[in-house]
Amino acid sequence: MAAAVDSAATMASQAERVVAQEGCVENGEGSGSTGHVPVFGAFDDLGLTGRDVAELVGVTPPTVSKWRSAKVRIPNEKLAFLTLVLAHLLDEADMGCTMNVEGPIDTMHGRGPIEAARAGLAYQDVLNRDLPVSDVRAAAQRFRAWWESGHAQKLQDKRFSPPASADILRALQNMRKKR
Predict the structure, then answer these.
(1) How many Å apart are CA 87 and CA 125, to the nearest integer?
(2) Which of 12, 132, 171, 179 is paired with 143 by a 20 to 30 Å CA distance?
(3) Following DSSP, what letter does each residue of 117-131 receive, concatenated?
(4) pLDDT band at 138 (very low <50, low <70, confident <90, very high)
(5) pLDDT at residue 31 above 50?
């Protein structure tokens, strides 16, 4: 657990350096000159579609497409909400669930989809630091309502599956012991 916290702190520190070097924060949002919003890349890494994201925030898939392409700026409250959902999904992955994520390993950085999503979350966290408190509070309230409505469980069921058997658990434990 401490290793995960250290890893997240390291990624956040690296993300802060990138933001400072590239000047990616524009008016408190992570859109910069390229329109890149890291939370969308992280959702891509986890296999969530634009339709999934649209359903999360209650907009149409074309609206999400416009946010991704920076044709339209994503509202701060919705950006903070999506960041909270991403953090939730990654917390579930840390709690021992097996994420239904398939994707190539990023050979340049030596990381898989979950690690890439964690890096995206760290980067988005840095960019979100300048969001207005009222928008972050509204996003937290929205997240809580989403959680209590059972939609979080539905998303977890879609993204996660418990280990298939005790054999898989033993194999994972053996792999950890060998490290």
Answers:
(1) 10
(2) 12
(3) HHHHHHHHHHHHTTS
(4) very high
(5) no
Which residues sit opposite 160 in a β-bridge?
99
The confidence score (pLDDT) of residue 48 equals 87
With vertex at residue 100, the alpha carbon angle to CA 82 and CA 66, rounded to the nearest 5 degrees, is: 35
Q: Residue 25 — pLDDT band, cuts 50, 70, 90? A: very low
Within 47-150, residue ranges assigned H as helices are 50-57, 61-68, 76-94, 113-128, 133-148
The residues that bridge with 111 in the sheet, in sequence order, are 106
Instruction: Specify the pLDDT at position 20.
Output: 41
Q: Which residue has the tokens 């890291």?
A: 38
Q: How far are the Cα atoms of 37, 57, 159 from residue 74, in angstroms, in the given order? A: 9, 11, 24
Longest dimension (CA), the chain: 51
CA dist., res. 57 & res. 79, Å (int): 9
